[in-house]
Amino acid sequence: MGKTKERRDGGKLLSTELHATLSANDEARRAAVMAGAVEPDFVPIAKFFSPVGAATWLATELGEDGDTLFGLADLGFGCPELGSFSLSELASVRLPFGLGIERDLGFASEVPLSGWAAAARRAGSIITAEQNFRRAARGDELPKPKG
User: Fold this and answer.
1) Distance in angstroms (rounded) separating the CA atoms of residues 63 and 3
2) What does each C-alpha distance from 91 to 35, 51, 105, 136 come to in angstroms?
3) CB atoms within 10 A of CB 26
């Protein structure tokens, strides 16, 4: 996704293009609120994940402070939630074997955040929701809901 420039996250998690797109989404949402319009339901722009666990984050916006992301957060406990999370905190996480939180370089979605939230809550995780979206795109039968 192009060159990265040094930022609070050390430039490791967001390219300049992703940073600009996430910031533009935040500006568009704020403009809609100020105009009394319906807030946009953005498609997630970036996916972050733990390479040694189930924690996954989908980001749609980056606040004016350049650190506060908004999106869907799933720490792997079965209850994905919409909310804010810190880019610098994601970048500072140190995991076993010298690993850290990574960005999924191949992530792309056409599903808006509300669709991700509903699917992840139903499935119990962003990872399972993503698998279900892929199955549906291939025309495969989706697994039956539990319970």
Assistant:
1) 21
2) 34, 13, 16, 33
3) 19
- At residue 114, φ and ψ (nearest 5 deg) are -60, -35
Spatial contact of 71 and 59, defined as CB atoms under 8 Å apart: yes
Amino acid at 86: S
Alpha carbon 119 to chain centroid, angstroms: 14
For residue 136 the two structure tokens come to 């549906």
Max Cα distance, the chain (Å):
49
Chain length of the chain: 147
Of the candidates 87, 74, 73, the one whose C-alpha atom is nearest the C-alpha of residue 13 is: 87
Q: How confident is the model at residue 4, as a pLDDT? A: 37
Instruction: Give the model confidence (pLDDT) of 1-47 as tens digits.
Output: 344 333 445 468 999 999 999 999 999 999 999 999 999 999 999 99
Q: 19-22 long-range CB contacts below 8 Å, 24 or more apart? A: 19/62, 19/66, 21/45, 22/46, 22/59, 22/60, 22/61, 22/62, 22/69
